Protein 1
Amino acid sequence: MILMATAKKKILPEDYRPSEDEPFMSDLQRAYFRRKLLNWRDEIMRSTKETLQHLQDDSAQHADIADRATSESERALELRARDRQRKLIAKIDSALERIDDGTYGYCEETGEPISLKRLDARPIATLSVEAQERHERRERVYRDE
């Protein structure tokens, strides 16, 4: 699969990996993260379709109460997982919008660039590692009060 970068129509090689040696959020980096996000979203959508198909196929009534309880527990777990996936898709879509508007890769709190390693590991990240740690510490303090 070849993906075109939007601004300068450069071809994104399959084996391209962002590097600290190039300008931050260059056309190639944005194309790389767009491809990564779109592939992730497609994978989630395929998984969701499989889950829905499984839920429809498994709608049979079970005579045994234990079988029915097991089936209902599995159904509840799948529905919770599907809800998490729905929320993740919204975050992926938000990241794609940030790529389009030029804010992708920059910390929402500090405005500083988020490290490429963090973005590669978590392409929906909106905070730098330091800002995320501060955020988590604040959450712990509020929870403990």
Protein 2
Amino acid sequence: MSDIAQTPEPPYYAVIFSNHRTEGDHGYGEMADRMVELASEQPGFLGVESVRDGLGITVSYWESLEAIKNWKRNSEHREAQKLGHERWYSTFKLRIAKVERDYGI
């Protein structure tokens, strides 16, 4: 179980990555850990939440659309995306949403 990301007051952006994995690890676990580490070093990164129970959902939070674009262009991230298409995901969907409100206890 991952922690709930500590995000600032809105507005900010959420990148929602929903997926189904292929069978076997094939280096996925190591790459997933590296992507979280690398994302956390990127300007504009605010946090991440991830869960897998058959369906995997990872939500990363960003200050701006520009920060998201820069993350998408990162060379290591591009290699992980390529491997995801080739090895790790049978299906996936990526959505980007603007967070206008958040609250909780």
Protein 3
Amino acid sequence: MQKRLQVKNVCRILPPSTDIDALFKMERRCRVYNDSTIRFKKIKYEVPDCLPGSRVTIYYMPWDKTCIYYGNEMRKARILDLSANARRFEHPNQ
């Protein structure tokens, strides 16, 4: 025990300005569907700035599925609201 306590600690202290979330962010490539959505962990997200049929890199935290970012500019993807998309058939002439 004394031998272990005498060894210098290998952990470094991070400066307070370091963004800790960025250190844990993971990335993955997803295909953009024809309705400008991607599917990640059985949840559909809207990515309006991406071309359908292309692949986009998404960045996410492994423990938080509600907030993902896409593209080099790290834009936030929104979870697809199925009820809002279903209302478009209520007034087809507008």
